[in-house]
């Protein structure tokens, strides 16, 4: 649920404590997305976002979707994100895994310049991404705002299969909705709607209706980027 570059041990402990409490709600392995978007009428998501551009989002008031299995999502905004995958972590047993089986860390904007590939280390945690630049003085202004951690809710089995096949180093476009998820014992789980909120609430929760892998996405990344 959290994005931030390396924090003090106290802050990390705070995050860990919250995540342990969330994990106490776990108990069922993920058995596939309960939602079939083909059977649900959802607002349109219009237009592509060029690689490097900021995500596109549009407010969608008063729309909710039954995800099945006791879960429900309130749609906050339509959302299109295009960027490079720098971390991936699948989930099977945490509190949200039944609806969100995968996190992808994605960068966009100036961070896509290949000169920064070797300057930043990206690592996964439990529903979080950690990132650290070798020398922040050599990075673009507000460079942390271009690192996103995305909790992905596949709209159906085909979308789930496509998401689970995405590899670190690929350029992708994800189309869907920022959502707030409730139900089935899950504590209210709400998406960030801005890129600059940082710790402790900087992740996007996306109900994904389409994912596209773009060409020329291979890139050499530092260690600890991938957890399979």
Task: Give a quick set of tags describing it.
228 residues, mainly beta, five-stranded mixed barrel, three-stranded mixed β-sheet, 10 strands
Please tell me about this protein's structure.
With 228 residues, this protein is mainly beta. It has one domain (2-214). Helix content is 10%, strand content 40%. The protein has 2 helices and 10 strands. It has a 5-stranded mixed barrel. The protein has a 3-stranded mixed β-sheet with strand order 1-6-5, with no helix packed on it. A hairpin with a 2-residue loop joins β5 and β6 (128-133). The longest helix has 15 residues, at 9-23. The protein is globular. Residues 1-32 have low confidence and may be disordered.
Q: How many separate domains make up the residues? A: 1
Mean pLDDT across residues: 80
Radius of gyration: 17 Å
Q: Give the termini separation.
A: 19 Å
Portion in strands: 35-45%
Number of helices: 2
Instruction: List low-pLDDT spans.
Output: 1-32
| Strand ordering within the main sheet | 3-4-7-10-8
Number of strands: 10
Question: Can you summarize the main beta sheet?
Answer: 5 strands, mixed, barrel
């Amino acid at each position: 649920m959290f994005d931030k570059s390396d924090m003090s041990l106290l802050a990390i402990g705070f995050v860990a404590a919250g995540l342990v409490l969330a994990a106490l709600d776990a108990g069922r392995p993920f058995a596939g997305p309960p939602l079939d978007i083909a059977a649900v009428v959802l607002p349109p998501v219009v237009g592509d976002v060029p690689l490097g551009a900021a995500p596109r989002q549009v407010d969608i008031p008063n729309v909710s979707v039954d995800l099945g299995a006791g879960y429900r999502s309130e749609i906050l905004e339509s959302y299109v994100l295009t960027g490079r995958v720098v971390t991936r972590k699948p989930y099977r047993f945490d509190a949200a895994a039944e609806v969100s089986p995968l996190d992808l860390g994605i960068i966009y904007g100036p961070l896509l310049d290949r000169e920064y590939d070797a300057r930043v280390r990206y690592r996964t945690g439990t529903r979080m991404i950690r990132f650290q630049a070798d020398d922040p003085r050599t990075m673009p202004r507000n460079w942390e705002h271009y690192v996103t951690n995305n909790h992905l809710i596949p709209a159906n089995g085909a979308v789930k299969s496509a998401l689970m096949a995405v590899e670190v180093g690929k350029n992708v476009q994800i189309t869907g909705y920022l959502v707030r998820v409730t139900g089935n014992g899950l504590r209210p789980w709400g998406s960030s709607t801005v890129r600059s909120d940082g710790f402790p609430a900087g992740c996007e929760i996306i109900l994904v209706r389409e994912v596209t892998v773009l060409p020329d996405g291979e890139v050499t990344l530092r260690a600890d980027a991938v957890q399979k």
